[in-house]
Amino acid sequence: MPGDPSRRSLRNIYMKVGMLPGMKTSIANFMDITSRKRAEAALVESERRLSTCWAISREWRIAAGRMPSEPWSLSAKGARD
Fold first, then answer.
1. In this predicted structure, what is the pLDDT of residue 1?
2. What is the pTM of this model?
3. pLDDT tens digits, 25-58
4. 2 to 12, 16, 54: CA distances (angstroms)
5. CA 28 to the chain's CA centroid
6. Is pLDDT of 65 > 90?
7. How many Å is the maximal CA-CA distance in the chain?
8. DSSP of the chain
9. How far apart are CA 70 and CA 17, in angstroms?
């Protein structure tokens, strides 16, 4: 059911509050930043997976005796530059 509170997702909301110049009134601005936070989390996870893959492939290259110092020292075909 769409109105069921137990099925609603949490949202990340940015809120900024400020005073209006020359008045004794404040104003609030709310912005839903949920998609940005999800994208940031996905990027962190992707970087973690890439780092893990690089570490594993590094161990394999060491075992095979083909260990360049950094990933960018390999050409597109895997040969050392």
1. 46
2. 0.53
3. 999 999 999 999 999 999 999 999 998 888 888 7
4. 20, 29, 43
5. 28
6. no
7. 73
8. -TT-GGGPPP--EEEEEEEPTTSS-EEEEEEE-HHHHHHHHHHHHHHHHHHHHHHHHHHHHHHHT---SSGGGB-TTS-B-
9. 47
Alpha carbon distances (Å) from 60 to 6, 26, 66, 75? 47, 61, 9, 18
Check: CB of residue 32 under 8 Å from CB of residue 10.
no
Cβ-proximal residues to 58 (8 Å cutoff; 6+ apart), any chain = 67
Distance CA 78, CA 65 (A): 14
The type of residue at 63 is A
Average pLDDT over residues 64-72: 61
